[in-house]
Amino acid sequence: MTEIVRGVALVTGGSRGIGAAAAVALAGDGWDVGISYRTQADDAAAVVAACEAVGRRAVAVRADVAEAEDIERMFGEVTDALGPIGAVINNAGIVTPSAKVADYDVERLEKVFRINTIGAFLVAGAAVRRMSTARGGSGGVIVNVSSRGAVLGSANEYVDYAGSKAAVDTLTIGLANEVAKEGIRVLGIRPGLIETDIHAEGRLERIGATPPLGRPGKAEEVAALIAFLASDRASYMTGSMVDVAGGR
Ligand SMILES: NC(=O)c1ccc[n+]([C@@H]2O[C@H](COP(=O)([O-])OP(=O)(O)OC[C@H]3O[C@@H](n4cnc5c(N)ncnc54)[C@H](OP(=O)(O)O)[C@@H]3O)[C@@H](O)[C@H]2O)c1
């Protein structure tokens, strides 16, 4: 069987959870993989080792998506190590502590929008500057990781988080139209309740069985969708959002 080699993929927030599973799935699908992380270097190193174990090259870069300089450095270091990037998984994100809108303060709002929204816009912009055929690039794909919360609103928990992700859905639609003729597909995914460290203690135990499928999802189940969207198998898809939420 001929080995499939797809190019270089960059996964932000690839040290844990959905990003880590996506990195491993992409490596299994034939991509060399750059991952970024913010603090968990050991977890990032383990993901690099898992990608290498399936025969691909991989590198981890520490970069905070809330910092524009970090984003530029991240793209530079991954490109230097692995070559031109052809897929960007815009995944790094945080949730806010459970609270009602009436009790939010500026600091909380600035933090979640800075990382989830401004970070996602800056990563997408940096990807376009490198991949656009109008700017000398070879084209590519951007997969934005949003949330079902963007549609459901996340009342009584984190409406601010939901709003930060709704803006990411708008980024997917607008940017897809902007760069469709520049060789870049832009797609969004909206995970539901997925078993990762992102949840406050006890949340998954409390509501994990509430999706119609009766259980929370696994990071690997989201990663399989990401790998599909990044691949040529999704070559006629752009500007779409796909839910992976157990019917939620
Ligand atoms: N899990 C769910 O139920 C769910 C549902 C819908 C959407 N999502 C979205 O899916 C994405 C991944 O979530 P997850 O559940 O996999 O979360 P997670 O397990 O908490 O992992 C978050 C990842 O993002 C990185 N990260 C956090 N803040 C960052 C920053 N400022 N700059 C760079 N990297 C940063 C973390 O790096 P370190 O390891 O270094 O901390 C880690 O790799 C997020 O955008 C989240 O909103 C998750």
Quick summary:
With 248 residues, the protein is an alpha/beta fold. The chain has helices at 17-28, 41-53, 68-82, 106-131, 149-152, 159-179, 203-207, 219-230; strands spanning 7-11, 31-37, 58-62, 85-90, 140-145, 184-191, 241-244.
Main features:
alpha/beta; binds NADP nicotinamide-adenine-dinucleotide phosphate; 248 residues; globular; Rossmann fold; 17% strand; oxidoreductase activity
Sequence-ordered SSE layout with sheet pairings:
Layout: E1 7-11, H1 17-28, E2 31-37, H2 41-53, E3 58-62, H3 68-82, E4 85-90, H4 106-131, E5 140-145, H5 149-152, H6 159-179, E6 184-191, H7 203-207, H8 219-230, E7 241-244
Parallel strand pairs: 1-2, 1-4, 2-3, 4-5, 5-6, 6-7
Bound molecules: NADP nicotinamide-adenine-dinucleotide phosphate.
NADP nicotinamide-adenine-dinucleotide phosphate binds next to helix 1 and strand 2.
Describe this protein's structure.
With 248 residues, the chain is of the alpha/beta class. The protein has one domain (7-244): Rossmann fold (3-Layer(aba) Sandwich). Helix content is 44%, strand content 17%. The chain contains eight helices and seven strands, in the order E-H-E-H-E-H-E-H-E-H-H-E-H-H-E. The protein has helices at residues 17-28, 41-53, 68-82, 106-131, 149-152, 159-179, 203-207, 219-230, and strands at residues 7-11, 31-37, 58-62, 85-90, 140-145, 184-191, 241-244. A seven-stranded parallel sheet has the order 3-2-1-4-5-6-7, sandwiched between helices. Helix 2 links the parallel strand 2 and strand 3. It starts with 6 loop residues before the first strand and ends with a strand. The mean pLDDT is 97. Bound molecules: NADP nicotinamide-adenine-dinucleotide phosphate (NAP). NADP nicotinamide-adenine-dinucleotide phosphate is lined by residues 12-19, 36-40, 43, 64-66, 91-94, 115, 145, 147, 191, 193-194, 196-198.
